Amino acid sequence: MIENILEIRWHGRAGQGVKTASYLLAEAAMDLGKYIQAFPEYGPERMGAPMAAYTRISDEKILIHSGVENPDIIVVIDPTLVGTIDILKGVDLEKGIVIINSAMEPAVFREKLPGFKGKLATVDATGIALDTIGRPIPNVPMLGALIKVTNLLPLESVEEKLKHKFSEKFTEKIVEGNLKALERGYQEVRIDG
Questions:
Q1: Topology annotation, domain 5-192
Q2: How far apart, in whole angstroms, are the C-alpha atoms of residue 148 and residue 121?
Q3: How high is the pLDDT of residue 15?
Q4: Residue 1: per-residue pLDDT
Q5: First and final CA of the chain: distance in angstroms?
Q6: For 112, what's the count of Cα atoms within 13 Å in the CB-facing half-sphere?
Q7: Which parts of 61-149 are beta strand (E)?
Q8: Cα 135 from chain centroid?
């Protein structure tokens, strides 16, 4: 963690909404007067390829312009990446927060993340997305889970930003489905630690 800057690293695959979730969070924070950065980092640019996105939030101007090396929070949108890539790289193993898209309990992932003693949470974001929007795009329920686990922003501010951004390009039915997905992610996340 860099002094006075909260850093989040998102892990997922292209097409799962990793970049969108990172941007929505940052823009909701900006609407509350925070300074922000949000940007993706792609490997091979193809659907399904592993990728990362970064979000920085601060009360002061952010003067660094690089990837997040020591995140405070890790959000894993694609659980198949656990054990495939080093999702814990740079995180404080005692104080960090990891949120994983999975129907399994957080304790299952404690065994898969040796040495990690920080806060660990899981939410069945893919199941929620299928129920609410009819597609396996788990980014919005993961955003709801992140808000609950961290208390970073009021849920209402993220709802407003989602409504505004999604209304520009999606039908009212899709917007409503995503608002339900956000709320369910917030309500259904399971926290350990």
A1: Pyruvate-ferredoxin Oxidoreductase; domain 3 (3.40.920)
A2: 10
A3: 83
A4: 47
A5: 20
A6: 18
A7: 73-76, 97-101, 119-123
A8: 18
